[in-house]
Amino acid sequence: MTKKDVRILAFESSCDETSTAVIKNGREIESLIVATQIKSHQRFGGVVPEVASRHHIEVITQITKEALEQANVTWNDIDAIAVTYGPGLVGALLIGVSAAKAASMATGIPLIGVDHIMGHIMAAQLKDEIKYPALALQVSGGHTEIVLMHDPIHFEIIGDTRDDAAGEAYDKIGRVLGVNYPAGKTIDEWAHKGKDTFHFPRAMMEDDDYDFSFSGLKSAFINTCHHADQIHEKLNKYDLAASFQASVVDVLSHKTIRAIKEYQPKTFILGGGVAANHGLRERLDQEIEKLPASIKPKVILPDLKLCGDNAAMIGAAAYNLYNAGKFSDEHLNADPSLELPYADNMLN
Question: Distance between CA atoms of 52 and 91, rounded to whole angstroms?
Fold first, then answer.
């Protein structure tokens, strides 16, 4: 007997991207629409929550229609409706949650609330099969975490950021260098043209835990630039970028490799917006390749287009919750401070 295909219509609106997608069987992208707001926020040097919410309202109905059309399906073909309900900007989250709940109530299709971070990690599922237990390094503008994945729906944070996340630090030093938001891609490109001549601090790298701190690095970078301005010294922007990125990558790769050695996962996943950083990808590839064959995990680096916020990753995560019978109801609400594992009271 042939197993029935499961199609999930997913919504993502946690920050400044409005996205819808149709995902088949948690692995196949039948459609993916992303309406970006980057140009609207660039003039402010970062995301303005009220502006983001307004843009989500303007496009969400249209891109829902486009996702169904691109996938060549109707509402009758959809088995579940998934939506990011946290963490993120509360106003932005509410637009997606409201749209998904309205669609669910109008059609009778089951609703699944998805953790945004779980979605980023599950972008890997759209590229290759994940073998468990797995370990993920989740690096984005708001989060830097090492996550132990016991199975597709039970996650445990073993390392977290104590202040600025890595992606947030990239954007803040980007402003000092005059780089438009989001700064990560440009800083990464500049870093490949420069050398680590400033030797910025590597905070908490030798600590016994797996937590991170990037506020000291950010301050050291800003102080270096301000001091140079005061004495009218011109610094090489490529060397500044290379020195900053070397510090970030050193800390991330060191703690990640130590976690792999301790937990010996079958799969390693890099997730989040900073997962698109070529310097980080190259270093992790090199360091994992050096590990003994007995503990070397399978490595899944998501496609670059799936590193940023998108609905496809939400659909992939929702498929796992669908299979576990973990559905939401009309009381689902935005939770801007949602943390992994959000699952204990919901998934046990």
Answer: 8
